[in-house]
Write a structure and sequence with these properties.
Elements: H1 2-38, E1 55-70, E2 75-87, E3 102-105, H2 107-113, E4 121-123, E5 126-139, E6 144-156, E7 168-177, E8 185-188, H3 191-196, E9 208-217, E10 220-221, E11 227-228, E12 230-239, H4 242-255, H5 257-264, E13 268-269, E14 272-273, H6 277-301, H7 311-335, H8 338-343, H9 345-375
Parallel strand pairs: 1-8
Antiparallel strand pairs: 1-2, 2-6, 3-5, 4-7, 5-6, 7-12, 9-12, 10-11, 13-14
């Protein structure tokens, strides 16, 4: 009895010892799993909620180069850098922020972006696929992250030519939140983002002067009464006058002289006009064809000017009004002598002299006022 009783505890200890390796292996696996979830290198790609919602993302953009600007089509091609900055405590590698940041570019940055949460942002006014799209990612030991997206593509733009040729256009990059409402993520900017959003010194565009970039918050309505954050970075450009003045405004202003010549070239002696009416009408008809040809030429090159109210349309309208006025004066005074029959030749001569100066003066004042209104 005593021998068997002594052997029983011994066998139990052997069974317990046999189970220890399995328990140890299980604990090791659990510790490894916990370490994997807690390690910043394998951060959670879901929305960071540790500091509450909405998540604040700093947005900025700069223009590196402008390949073209088609104001008739309302689009431009450019290479831009889009910068996003946010904080995610799951990316922190040290409490005091000591250490070097993790800097990645190209495919390495894209691979890392799949492992962490990155702001779902798109360029809302981009047309088609980008010709070039590269990423750069920098993660600081404090958990602060910075994403740089360099993209070359076509972008749509609203063209306003009301003040043509003294107009300024805004080449906009619309940085919009994709899928998240302002209750989950907001886009904002501070002075550092404004400082970053400057056009490159190498950015050039023929016929235009490059200005500064303006940042503006412009939230967009979404589904179910939601709102999506959007920051618009607009590059200001100003039109150069040289080519436009030579090709459009000099011919337009010169054509205003045609109806005036049709009035000035005729003279009166003793109440009788010295030049036949048909010769003056020929000048007017020739001027009409010249303005129609100029109209076709301008609108073929600048289609955008054919729509809406602008200086060119006003000057074309003034040309047609001037031709109509000259035709009316020649027919009423020279062809049918209406004023002379009603009030006598002296009254017609005085009225014609007044009209010779009144119509040109009125047309000149209107033309100058159109240009001045566009300038200011």
């Amino acid at each position: 009895m005593s021998a068997s009783a002594a052997a029983a505890p011994s066998r139990k200890r052997h069974r317990d010892m046999a189970r220890f390796p399995f328990v140890s292996a299980g604990l090791a696996a659990l510790m490894t799993l916990l370490a994997a979830f807690s390690a910043p290198a394998l951060a959670d790609p879901t929305l960071p909620r540790d500091k509450g919602l909405p998540i604040a993302v700093q947005a900025a953009a700069t223009v590196l180069s402008i390949a073209s600007f088609d104001e008739n089509a309302g689009k431009f091609r450019a290479t831009v850098d889009l910068r996003l900055r946010w904080a995610d405590s799951r990316l922190a590698s040290s409490q005091d922020g000591s250490g070097t940041p993790e800097t990645l570019r190209g495919s390495a940055a894209e691979a890392r972006m799949k492992e962490i949460w990155t702001p779902p942002v798109r360029i809302a006014n981009q047309v088609g696929a980008a010709e070039r799209s590269e990423y750069g990612l920098k993660v600081y030991p404090t958990g602060q992250a910075e994403l740089l997206h360099r993209v070359t593509a076509d972008f749509t733009v609203d063209v306003n030519v009301e003040r043509f040729p003294f107009d300024r256009q805004k080449l906009a990059i619309e940085i919009a939140a994709d899928g998240l409402t302002t209750a989950e993520m907001i886009l904002r900017f501070d002075q550092s983002d404004i400082d970053f959003s400057r056009p490159s010194v190498h950015a050039e565009l023929g016929g235009w002067t490059i200005g500064l970039i303006d940042l503006k918050s412009a939230p967009q309505p979404g589904w179910y009464n939601g709102t999506h954050a959007q920051v618009v970075a607009s590059l200001d450009i100003e039109r150069k006058l040289g080519l436009v003045v030579a090709s459009i405004f000099i011919p337009l202003l010169a054509s205003l002289l045609i109806p005036q010549l049709a009035i000035w070239l005729n003279t009166m002696e003793d109440g009788v006009f010295q030049v036949d009416t048909y010769e003056m009408v020929n000048i007017i008809i020739g001027g009409l064809f010249a303005i129609i040809a100029l109209n076709f030429t301008v609108y073929s090159s600048y289609t955008v000017l054919s729509v809406g109210d602008n200086t060119v349309n006003r000057l074309f309208a003034l040309n047609y009004i001037g031709l109509a006025s000259a035709l009316f004066v020649n027919v009423v005074f020279s062809r049918f002598n209406v004023v002379a029959r009603l009030f006598g030749p002296y009254a017609q001569e005085q009225a014609y002299t007044a009209i010779m100066w009144a119509i040109p003066t009125l047309i000149f004042v209107l033309a100058v006022s159109f240009l001045f209104a566009a300038y200011v």
